[in-house]
Every structure is written in structure tokens, then in C-alpha cells.
Amino acid sequence: MALRSDWSRRTCSMARGLDILGDPWTILVLREVFFGNGRFDAIKARLEVADSVLTKRLAGLVESGLLEKKAYDDGGRTRQEYVLTPMGEDALPVLNAVTIWAEKHLPAPSDKAHMYVIHSGCGKRTSSADTCTGCGERLTAANTSWHSQSRSEQPVPLSTAAVRKEAAA
Ligand SMILES: [Zn+2]
User: Fold this and answer.
1) Ligand 1: centre distance to CA 139 (Å)
2) Rounded CA gap, 156 and 128, in Å?
3) What angle do the packed helices 92-105 and 24-34 form, to 10 degrees?
């Protein structure tokens, strides 16, 4: 990603993971794609980010294998949007964990600035990143919603990888 020194060959797997996931813009781009905003202009509007920054992060996420480009028809004109790969979908617990940790430890700037991770299956808010603490089911993008109070009244079901893994582990 060339944002700093290359950690992609570090012996520590946490360092190798952070080489891709350790950048705030990268995580926020993934947040938007999970929310279903895969189009460049939509991501840009949400993140209020410079074109050059967003272009670089999107290219990095495609190169790393977390996102892929998919064509869509925009009123007769073919354009590209970004969708999750199975590898990108697997990053969901990381984003959930950051959100849950922030809700637990960091003050919200207003009463309407909370974000919750919801298991769509039972409707409960979970306090664990990969398992529903309401019912014990494993969380996946297909059964998870995020409720960002500043964004919507209701929880939003997440986007899943364009091509789902066969027989998810
Ligand atoms: Zn549940």
C-alpha cells in the first residue's frame, strides 16, 4: 500500500494484517462497502475524502484482494463499483471489534452518535465481534446489521461478498 514501510513480510501475522488493515481510511472504505456504498462517488461523499486518497485506498484494497470491481449500468453507461471478496468479507469481525471497543471505551460526541452491531437472526445487539452474545450464533456479513444512529433509524443489513465461499467454515 506504500503508505509507510512495507510490513507484508513481517514474521508476526498481526503486523502482516496491519499492513493492510492498519490504515483508518482503509477501514472506513470497507465500512462503506459493507453498508452497500460501493460506488466511488458515494464513498467519497460519505467519507469527505480527497479523490487521490480514496483512489489510492481502493487500488490498495483491490490489489490486496479484499475488494473487486464490478460493472454496473448507469443509465446506459457502464461504470465500476467496488464489492467485497470473501477475503474482504472475512474482515468483518475486525470492523465489528473496533466499533464495539469504541462504544465501550470512547465517549460519543452526542446521544445520536452511537453505532451498534446487531445480529439480524435474533435482533439483539452483540458485544462480541464474531459471535452474537444474544444467542451464540457465529456472525457473518449475511446475518449482521449495523445500526449507525447518525445514518439511519433502523439497522442496515450488510453487503456480502459478490461470490460467496462454498460451504463457509
Ligand atoms: Zn443472535
Assistant:
1) 8
2) 18
3) 110
Instruction: For the chain, list the domains and their CATH numbers.
Output: 13-86 (1.10.10.10), 91-157 (no CATH)
Span from the CA of 6 to the centroid of ligand 1 (angstroms): 39
Q: Report d(CA 123, CA 31) in Å as an integer.
A: 20
| Ligand 1 center from residue 113 Cα (angstroms) | 23
Q: What is the pLDDT along the chain (169 residues), one digit of tens a residue?
A: 445 688 888 889 999 999 999 999 999 999 999 999 999 999 999 999 999 999 999 999 999 999 999 998 889 999 999 999 999 999 999 999 999 999 999 999 999 999 999 999 999 999 999 999 999 999 999 999 999 999 999 999 999 998 765 554 4
